[in-house]
Description:
The model has no long low-confidence stretch (mean pLDDT 97). 48% of the residues are buried. The chain has 371 residues and is an alpha/beta fold. The chain has twelve helices and 15 strands. The protein is globular and about 65 Å long. The strands form two sheets. The chain has a nine-stranded mixed β-sheet with strand order 14-13-12-11-7-10-9-8-15. The protein has a six-stranded parallel β-sheet with strand order 3-2-1-4-5-6, sandwiched between helices. It has two domains: 127 residues, NAD(P)-binding Rossmann-like Domain (Rossmann fold), CATH 3.40.50.720; 204 residues, Dihydrodipicolinate Reductase, domain 2. It starts with a strand and ends in a 7-residue tail after the last strand.
Amino acid sequence: MTVRIGVFGTSWWADAMYLPAIESHPDGKAVAACGRDAERADRFADTWSIPGRFTDPQSMLDEAALDAVVIATPNNTHYELAMAAIEAGLHVLCEKPLAMNTAEAEAMAEAAAEHRAITLVPFTYHYMPVNRWVRQLVADGYIGRPLHVNLRYYSSFGHDPRYSWRFDPDVAGTGIIGDLGSHWIHLARWLLDDVETSISATSTAFVEREARPDGSTYEPLEDSVAMTVRYRSGAYGVLQTSAVCWEGGPFGHSHHLDLHGDDGTIYARCDWDRTQEVRGLKRGSTEVPRVLPIPDDIWGGVRRDRVHDTYRDVFRSTDAMTRAWISAVAAGRPVQPDFAEGLAVQRVIDAAAASAASNGSPVPIDQRAAT
């Protein structure tokens, strides 16, 4: 079966992340593209030999013969586009965070379940070799019972004061909490195989940002956040994401993980250049944490030199994320992380934003309907 896909969004991200994965999949074919700017949409479609070109989303849904859509557009468009696609009987991959708020995400997840849509929320770091190896080590009992996890995502793009919709509340909903934070919220719950019960958060907008392109002003969203999460098992996590950390290197961001249990410790680091490493230490040992080599089957044949090349290969040549979703659509089976997981993460995002707005007061999270 060839899965005929329409793509909402013609940005560099759609060009770099989604089209290479679609076109390299034996069962995938991009047959339509929709963007707000007609010239840009045409250039995007020409690059990938996409026959259908649209500037109106509903026209693409009505006129293009589609099986599925990719939504690679700003956050304030996700709900409307996803609901229209699901109502049209299509399968949906929608960028993270899933929606502007929990109410939208609940409606999207309910519609997907009702229409049996095969959905995916692309939490990219779920698929990276370092994190997959940590997940396997935890599942195999390397640290015993997880006690707490510390995840840090340091990036520097927020130092640029020019307008970015990612810090505009009318477009993004939340700032770094939903942007980078959604990755870490998902990753922590996946690594721990656990669900959240409460959260406390402190966030700040450090950078004074320029007005919107039309000259209108707004209150910029947070560019740094620290979240303390309590999980149902009693474990807790400290999740920090920031867009104003100078990390140096060619890519300007880094990932750090510390995971402690009652029988050991795991450390993982990815500098987005040369380092993607996992180390471990068993309880009682006084040695320096030793390298725990990532197995060949987890590498899956991707390049191991630069992290950026690993990232490219994972999403363009292995059956991960977009390609896994296409395979699932072709086979008529579900895939994870789906809209139910996107909803669960959205609940945490909203609770974190509420906590930050109340100076870090704990906010309860009810995840029963998402599990």
